[in-house]
């Protein structure tokens, strides 16, 4: 069920006796790595408490359309946009009828109307209600309207809560979860743990000054987004930047190279892919003045001391990740220096960045790079950092797959 890793699932629960099984469904989906937000109809609350589902999903449960507090948190339109998919289990005959009619009489029906996400229903109702021509017509209407973005999971057949025998029982939660997983291709990095360093470091001179560089974090953050989209579990170790972290990554904020090294060592356990895109200061002030350094004389001498090399430390570690990728920001002899760093830092790949150009590299939205490995090199012409990140992540994922297969 790795396909469900990182998926944002909006689980709708309507008012039927099968609602008690939804608790188990939440547990299975969450265990598969999905982020589950539960939306209950008023009827559903008669069968199971929001508190149970909140505890199992780890997220607040939504059930009221006109709730000022909830709207101030994640409003209903935001929730509709948030969802990668909407799963309604159990879906009662009444709820299906409302969805087919395009009603928005309570939060769940409104969300379905307001969302473009695929809709999956696990019906649960009495066998006569299931067989009713109106129920079947309503399901055909939904299928016609949503096309490939609609599927029914079940129902199962057998003895029903009311004593009838026939189709209408909700599928077991494990079956619903595996049918849902089958709808999605596993991402290229599903099941992989990826650690990415990004942004600049700041090396303090005194309480108000520091040595740093122009890295904005855009390249590393784009890589984190692409890795999450590929299904990876991502830790982003970031220097001080002004951009928001992508959703679904674990963000570790750091300031100096020493902080970044400590965070890297603390998070590298079981890591498959380590990407060092951060612009780390090679040197730091040998002494950090306790008080602000006062102006005196025409010249001032600074003594700098070498910082630890983070990516080289990781690449030479006993628990070295299967693939370690560095970046090389160069202004001259890009090819020569990049190849040199590939070997001296014991890397598997290095992404060479010509930062003498003002249209790419530091702080720009675009980049153009050459990726070197021991086997050869590949050029990536100028493109957005978002697109470049996707292409680089595909290449790294391919290397990991080859390693696994050989
Ligand atoms: O953040 P952006 O504005 O989007 O810009 C992107 C970028 C230009 C910063 C990025 O594409 C890039 O090139 N990052 C590497 C910058 C750099 O520090 O390069 P370097 O050649 O000095 O270092 C080589 C490699 O060693 C890098 O992977 C670096 O993270 C790593 N390193 C360097 C020094 C050190 N003490 N520890 C390290 O881990």
Description:
With 406 residues, the chain is α/β, with parallel strands linked by helices. The chain is built from 14 helices and 19 strands. The chain folds into two domains: 2-181, Rossmann fold, CATH 3.40.50; 193-284 and 302-405, CoaB-like (Rossmann fold, 3-Layer(aba) Sandwich), CATH 3.40.50.10300. It has helices at residues 22-31, 50-57, 68-73, 76-82, 93-101, 107-114, 127-131, 133-146, 173-182, 218-229, 257-267, 310-315, 334-344, 385-405, and strands at residues 8-13, 35-40, 85-91, 119-123, 150-152, 156-159, 165-169, 193-198, 203-206, 209-211, 233-238, 249-253, 273-276, 283-285, 304-306, 323-330, 349-354, 366-373, 377-384. The strands form five sheets. The chain has an eight-stranded mixed beta sheet, with helices on both faces. It has a five-stranded parallel beta sheet with strand order 2-1-3-4-5, with helices on both faces. The longest helix has 21 residues, at 385-405. Ligand PMT binds next to helix 10, helix 12 and strand 16.
């Amino acid at each position: 069920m790795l396909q469900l890793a990182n998926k944002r699932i909006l689980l709708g629960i309507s008012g039927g006796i099968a609602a008690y099984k939804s608790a188990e469904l939440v547990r299975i989906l969450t265990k598969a790595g999905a982020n589950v937000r539960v939306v209950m109809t008023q009827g559903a609350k008669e069968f199971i408490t929001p508190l149970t589902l909140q505890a199992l999903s780890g997220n607040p449960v939504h059930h009221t359309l006109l709730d000022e507090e909830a709207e101030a948190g994640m409003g209903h339109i935001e929730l509709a946009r948030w969802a990668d998919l909407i799963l309604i289990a159990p879906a009662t005959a009444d709820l299906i009828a409302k969805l087919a009619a395009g009603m928005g009489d309570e939060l769940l029906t409104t969300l379905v109307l307001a969302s473009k996400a695929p809709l999956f229903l696990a019906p649960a109702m009495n066998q006569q209600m299931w067989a009713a021509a109106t129920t079947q017509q309503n399901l055909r209407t939904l299928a016609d309207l949503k096309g490939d973005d609609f599927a029914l999971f079940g129902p199962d057949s057998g003895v029903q809560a009311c004593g009838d025998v026939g189709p209408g029982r909700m599928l077991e939660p494990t079956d619903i979860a595996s049918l849902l997983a089958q709808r999605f291709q596993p991402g290229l990095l599903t099941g992989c743990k990826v650690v990415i360093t990004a942004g600049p470091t700041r090396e303090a001179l005194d309480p108000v000054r520091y040595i740093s560089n122009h890295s904005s974090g855009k390249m590393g953050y784009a890589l984190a987004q692409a890795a999450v989209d590929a299904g990876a579990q991502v830790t982003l170790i970031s220097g001080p930047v002004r951009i928001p972290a992508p959703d679904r990554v674990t963000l570790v904020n750091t300031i100096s190279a020493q902080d970044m090294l400590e965070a890297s060592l603390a998070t590298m356990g079981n890591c498959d892919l380590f990407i060092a895109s951060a612009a780390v200061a090679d040197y730091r002030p040998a002494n950090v003045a306790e008080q602000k350094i006062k102006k005196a004389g025409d010249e001032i001498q600074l003594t700098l001391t070498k910082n630890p090399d983070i990516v080289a430390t990781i690449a030479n570690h006993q628990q070295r990740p299967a693939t370690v990728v560095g970046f090389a920001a160069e202004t001259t002899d890009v090819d020569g220096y990049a190849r040199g760093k590939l070997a001296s830092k014991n890397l598997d790949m290095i992404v060479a960045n010509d930062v003498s150009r003002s249209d790419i590299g530091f702080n720009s939205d675009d980049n153009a790079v050459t990726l070197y490995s021991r086997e050869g090199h590949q050029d990536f012409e100028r493109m957005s950092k978002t697109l470049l990140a996707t292409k680089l992540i595909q290449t790294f994922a391919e290397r990991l797959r080859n390693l696994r297969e050989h």
